Fold this protein.
Amino acid sequence: MQTNLADFIKDTPQGREAEAILRKCVHCGFCTATCPTYQLLGDELDGPRGRIYLMKQVLEGAPATAKTQLHLDRCLTCRSCETTCPSGVQYGRLLDIGRAIVDKQVGRGPVEAVKRKALRAVIPHPSRFSPLLNLGQRLQPALFGALKRKVPPPARTSAWPARAHVRKMLVLDGCVQPILSPNTNAAAARVLDRLGITLIRAAQAGCCGAISYHLNAQDEGLGYMRRNIDAWWPYLQQGAEAIVMTASGCGAMVAEYGHLLAHDTAYAEKAARVSALMKDVSEIIAAEQARVMALSLHASRLAPHRVAFHPPCSLQHGLKLKGTVETLLADFGFDLSPVPDAHLCCGSAGTYSILQPELSQRLLKNKLAALTSGAPAAIVTANIGCQSHLQTATGLPVMHWIEALDARLD
């Protein structure tokens, strides 16, 4: 695609990156076939190719409009288009650049601005999120409709292993997962403990930065990234082997630290190392699979537990780990029910379910129909956002797959 970027952007790092991405696009349209919003709305401007044209116009100097902003807002950033694209167009990175410019030109109405600021002020901060959730849980009997369904019951907690091993890995607690599903990281710690690996939580690490960064508070998001690097760095210097992610959405963000901080002379080298050491928990288990299988011989004689696996977009499209968890589950004796259109988003997508509720609910309905079509006894996934979102609309238990594996190994 030929480009002629405007003076305000062309000689900046963002402009050079955007131009390189745009030049890879050959307008083939393969991306529209796997775009969830295009499938729902049938509008070229609500698919990747159309959004790329909109961003190209703005980058070349055309004024952004509220209509441009609307079509960009409707994007889930699921990155399914990246998996489909034969030319390797990094659409997600272009979208971050384009959204920031469009928001700066168009602005936000007072209601929308307050909503987005409130999300950034609450979700990344467990000390704020937890009391609000507790209040919602106490008031739940008086709530009704969609609001009642969105408030989860109090989460069960479980013990972390007490043993210390020579092999050590870091794990990111994140922001909402320790509150909504504290058993996830505890289960991961127990599985890895069986393998002689200790999981360490760095006290000062927290939100990965995705919430702020993808809501166009990019400097704020970069601040979270630098804080996490500072929290992890002493452990990495002491020999921690990896930074384990049990939320694939956070994993996809940490994988970008090296790129996003490449121009920060104080953090570029550290950020690159952090991104290189980031591993989804499925990668750790796959690397140690033979040892885990030896531990689970007694469990493999049990009747297979029929589950449906929902691969989060951040896992299959962001981290490019499509099929990894499914293979592990099958190897460990789980009976995987078929899931049509497994590449499509469930509609959670960070804050999307709050900011685009109508589209999110349509995607959720379609996803649950696909997940339950094979009559599973439970749904397992790999990201807290998907887990919480799916649980709002089904009576089936929804959990992280590492919890199911941990229970299988008991």
In short: The chain has four domains: 7-106, 110-150, 167-283, 302-409.
